[in-house]
Amino acid sequence: MSGIQARLRLTRPDFTLDIYLELPGRGVTALFGPSGCGKTSCLRALAGLERAQGSVRVNGELWQDNASGHWLPTHRRALGYVFQEASLFAHLNVRRNMEYGLRRQPPARRRVSLEQAVELLGLGALLTRMPHTLSGGERQRVAIARALATSPRVLLMDEPLAALDAARKAEVMPYLERLQRSLDIPVLYVSHSPDEVARLASHLVLLQAGRVTAQGPTAELMARLDLPLAHGDAAAALVQGRVAAHDVHDHLLTVAIQGGQLQLITHRPRMVGESVRLRVLARDVSLARTHAGDSSILNLLPARITQLADDEPGQVLVALDAAGTTLLARITRRSCQNLALAVGDAVFAQVKGVALMD
Ligand SMILES: Nc1ncnc2c1ncn2[C@@H]1O[C@H](COP(=O)(O)OP(=O)(O)OP(=O)(O)O)[C@@H](O)[C@H]1O
Fold first, then answer.
1. What is the distance between the alpha carbons of residues 58 and 77, in angstroms, rounded to a whole number?
2. Residue 215: Cβ within 10 Å count
3. What residue owns the CA closest to ligand 1's atom 28?
4. pTM for the full model?
5. Is there an atom of ligand 1 within 6 Å of 39 CB?
């Protein structure tokens, strides 16, 4: 059986982790939840750094099982672990740090070469540098490459961007996006950041006080108004589409989505037919009862209201079905009353901004 199946129970004086995870065998799964909900404890238990009760199976390999008394210690679990702070060996240059990772696997079991890890994390120009001469973002890229060089069956990442400032985060993010596209192993990614979750994770586990409140595809969970991700400032719909046209003169990309199209400005050439992921922030969508034909807004989609929920004081979140594409809109409570909006109503969604996710 591929993927990860884990039942974990860990009891501490003031905290109990009690979860069942069923995760896909590739792609990034984000563990998301408030501070203290048990995200790090969950990773540590999977790694065997905490002795949780239960069972862990990773891509068919049994790592622990209480019922039969089976227990693999951490060093025998084929995993890579990346922490908030890159813990590189200070006396070894980048290449030697990575070779240390490589040597943890005998040559016959290596599935990732040093060159592949260097290429994926863009480290070619840094190989002879010592850790103290690297920026925080570069150090973190080396730490990820070193973890990959161990040919893990799963990569565990505990808030790998949390210790970086905004500029460094932006620098490392494209490498994480590349990993997400090219790795054929599952990645578990702990994060506090809805933005990171939306950009990186195809699958999501929401934790609250040591328990799973929901798990499933990220796009589905982000659109559920009963879950916290729909209520922050980053509340958004993720929309899958295909490039239908790229007008180079106007820098305008037309993306075919289920039941319609969205247009956005982009400066990078795109191939017609290319598959793309779009993010439409709830705060960038407004609603109208009638089709405003003379508007400057390019994207105007007929939609039906599927859910309504109070948001921050004075605001309402509206979930919409636009001919099969889910969108969220955040509007003022006053507008909601003025338009007398209710579930089932037909409206027009005016989409002011659309972002390409890759
Ligand atoms: N070594 C430990 N001994 C006792 N309690 C601990 C230990 N480590 C964590 N805890 C407690 O277990 C609970 C879960 O902690 P954990 O670090 O897993 O949460 P988290 O969701 O990762 O939090 P954060 O987002 O702040 O990193 C917390 O109440 C924490 O105080």
1. 9
2. 18
3. 36
4. 0.88
5. yes
